[in-house]
Design a protein that fits this description.
The protein has 549 residues and is an all-beta fold. The chain contains one helix and 45 strands.
């Protein structure tokens, strides 16, 4: 990727987007009794894994849009189908991995959609164990009854146990990776709509991660579900490690797939936006940054439910950018000198054309996912430090195909250095769609940026303006002139509130009067009008102003 594209993209995002959800927070769902389950795990002194499972408190499926309460929708086998454990290394640390598979049967009267099993934290609300329907978990964790080999308490180790996807180990390297055959583990889920009633005497916090047991589980159908955890170990003191504990969890479903996501087609953006509550009347636009500014290629409606379906059109060949920067030579594998690419920007607009934000995509581990169009194949793997900007470098592990590609982009700092990593993702990678609100910005549609304006000193000139309220900016906004002796009136505009269905189909139109002081000598200079709200810049536009005496 070129430094120009990186810096331009970062500038655009910083100017246009703040990391806040586009829709309002969803209203919590009505409370339901929670189906509460306990997975009991144990490792024997011979290193053999054992597991059992029981239902603790029959109740309501935690389910609508987003994850919602499902109650007690599944019957889980009491004994594991399989249980395995092994030691491995992750990120330089020794880890014990335990995974176990149980049969889960849908015992409701209808099919379950995206059945997800979520760890829960149970907290004693009053410190009185006598009124608790079941025992609490270790503070801040979904684990309880954490013990050593000799049966003594090891609650202090609960915080280091992590629910994960089932792993497979490379016997040659000793490293482990996700087992694609295991039940998918999701993180970064929106659990705000889970209105589950906890057991008596306890509060219950549902964690925003869990195992996707089945996309669709028909009435009476059974599916294998693999639970897994990692816990750090000290190989020199095995008896000082936790070797038995329980994991508490509940069940939820996601009927729109907005939380669990969908397998992605690189050429199609399809799914339901997480937490969408704005209703109908909005559009999604496929846009590209070009020398002349943003170019819109295709627009599709956003359904009232937040559902979108956009087949990407791509950029004109003449507008493609070189992917690799000559100033940042690749040190490693590189199959071709370069390819030309386009990065789509997915913008959300109101009915009147206000840019409210953008749609971003993440994978099941919450890493950013991007769509990349390439005009030719390229295999590149290695590092690419930039010579003129040594604080910026790139890391690549990409296999680009002609046409659309899925990649993940991560950024990190190492001291004063900024490292951007790109890695290819296979077609079908499960992704989630998120709407991210733009920062408030007054976008001036006319007069266009760079237009010529002519004033005669001492004679006011009323100029019609057309404004868009990007990011939903509304209320009083002040306007200032950059040139001494040139004023703008009124100096305060009151922008209307944006109210969803009440939105009109036109931009805000108003008139600003420019006046050059009488006696001002003639000149031609750039004039910048700056819009402020609460002391912050929320808009700017520049013109070429000519003043004649």
């Amino acid at each position: 990727m070129t430094k120009r594209m990186l810096l331009t993209g970062l500038t655009a995002l910083l100017a246009a987007c703040a990391p806040t959800p586009l829709p309002a927070a969803p209203t919590p769902a009505a409370s339901h009794p929670a189906g509460l389950y306990e997975l009991q795990l144990r490792v024997t002194d011979q290193g053999v894994g054992q597991a059992s499972l029981r239902r603790v408190d029959p109740g309501g499926l935690l389910s609508g849009q987003a994850l919602i309460a499902a109650g007690d929708p599944v019957q889980l086998g009491a004994q594991a189908i399989t249980t395995q454990t092994f030691t491995t290394r992750k990120n330089g640390a020794d880890i014990r991995h335990i995974s176990t598979t149980f049969a889960a049967t849908n015992v409701t009267a209808s099919a379950l959609q995206n059945l997800t099993l979520l760890p829960v934290v149970l907290t004693d609300t009053d410190g009185d164990p006598e009124n608790n329907a079941t025992a609490p978990t270790v503070a801040g964790t979904p684990f309880r009854s954490v013990r050593l080999f000799d049966g003594s308490d090891a609650s202090g180790q609960a915080a280091s146990i992590r629910p994960v996807q089932g792993q497979q180990v490379n016997v040659q390297t000793g490293e482990s990776t996700d087992n694609p055959a295991a039940t998918l583990f999701l993180s970064g889920l929106n659990v705000a709509s889970l209105g589950a009633t906890p057991p008596a005497g306890l509060s219950m916090t549902v964690q925003n991660q869990g195992w996707l047991a089945a996309e669709t589980l028909a009435q009476g159908a059974t599916v294998p579900v693999t639970f897994a955890v990692d816990l750090p170990i000290d190989r020199s003191n095995t008896r000082g490690q936790a070797f038995s504990f329980s994991l508490m969890f509940t069940a939820a479903q996601d009927v729109t797939s907005s939380e669990v996501g969908l397998p992605a087609d690189p050429a199609v953006v399809r799914g339901t936006l997480q937490g969408w509550t704005r209703g109908a009347g909005y559009e999604l636009s496929e846009e590209y940054m070009a020398e002349s500014g943003w170019l819109r290629r295709r627009t599709v409606p956003v359904a009232a439910t937040g559902s979108i379906d956009l087949s990407l059109q791509g950029q004109e060949t003449s507008q493609l950018f070189p992917f690799l920067d000559a100033d940042c030579p690749v040190q490693g594998e590189q199959s071709a000198p370069n390819v030309h690419v386009a990065w789509p920007y997915l913008a959300v607009y109101s009915a009147q054309g206000d840019r409210l934000g953008q749609v971003r995509e993440v994978d099941t581990t919450n890493k950013p996912v991007r769509r990349l169009y390439a005009d030719a194949p390229l295999r590149v793997k290695g590092t690419a430090p930039c010579q003129s900007l040594p604080e910026i470098s790139f890391e690549y592990d990409l296999t680009l195909q002609p046409g659309w590609n899925l990649i993940t982009e991560t950024q990190r700092r190492v001291g004063e250095n900024f490292i951007v990593r790109y890695q290819s993702l296979p077609s079908g990678t499960r992704t989630r769609l998120r709407s991210v609100q733009s920062g408030p910005w007054v976008r001036v549609a006319s007069p266009e940026f760079g237009s010529e304006l002519n004033l005669r000193a001492g004679q006011p000139l009323a100029v019609p303006f057309q404004l868009f309220q990007d990011g939903g900016v509304s209320g009083p906004v002040t306007v200032t002139s950059s040139l001494p002796g040139v004023s703008v009136t009124p100096d305060t505009l009151n922008l209307p509130a944006l109210t969803g269905q009440a939105l009109g189909v036109q931009a805000v139109t108003t008139s600003l009067t420019l006046t050059a002081d009488a006696g001002l000598a003639g000149f031609s200079d750039p004039l910048t009008l700056t819009f402020f709200q609460n002391g912050q810049i929320v808009g700017r536009v520049s013109y070429l102003l000519t003043v004649t005496p």
